[in-house]
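Appendix B. Raw example, untouched.
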Amino acid sequence: MTRLKRHDERHAVARIGWLRAAVLGANDGIVSTASLMIGVGAAASGGGRGEMLIAGVAGLVAGAMSMAAGEFVSVSSQADSEAADLAKERGELASMPEQELAELTEIYVARGLTPSLAKAVAEQLTAADALTAHARDELGISEGGAARPVQAALTSAATFAAGAILPVICAAAAPMQLLAILVATTSLVALAGLGALGAWVGGAPMAKAAVRVTFWGAFAMVATAVVGRLFGAVV
């Protein structure tokens, strides 16, 4: 008997969970920290390297903690909802197994199976692991996509800090006369690379993603520079 060779495929959708958190965190880290530093620099007289560095470090710490807290709360709420749905489904499987089997059969019929085949599939999956079958096919909850609050929080904090540290390092090393320009330029180049990388990993057009993230990053930096200059002039 000929043994079939396993066809191993990797799809971009399998990376969406961690990719979304990583790209969002790093992008926010660069944009918010660089914009804050440029705004403070525009408000400070004489360039303000010290003020920009303090603002950058403070923005890095505050932003990383905010991203972690926000992601933890959000994903925890999702995890709580999933747990409640699973508990309800577990109770229904215990109290009304026939109705649940019929419900699962209807789901497979709606997906294109014949009624007889759908019932056979539902019976076999129910016998193997009824809760997993209903979680996946009725509730849309799978093991790979389950909510993980701590992992999401740590990923968001780490990627935000990784992005935010770039303009801080640039401000510490750049010549005083080119401080704001180099912070902005380095940050925009990093944003373009990040956008292209995220698009490549996710299988999307790289140029479009790079232009999009660079445009909004430049817009944020210009806006904070204008605000900083206005407030600096008033002070």
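End of appendix B.
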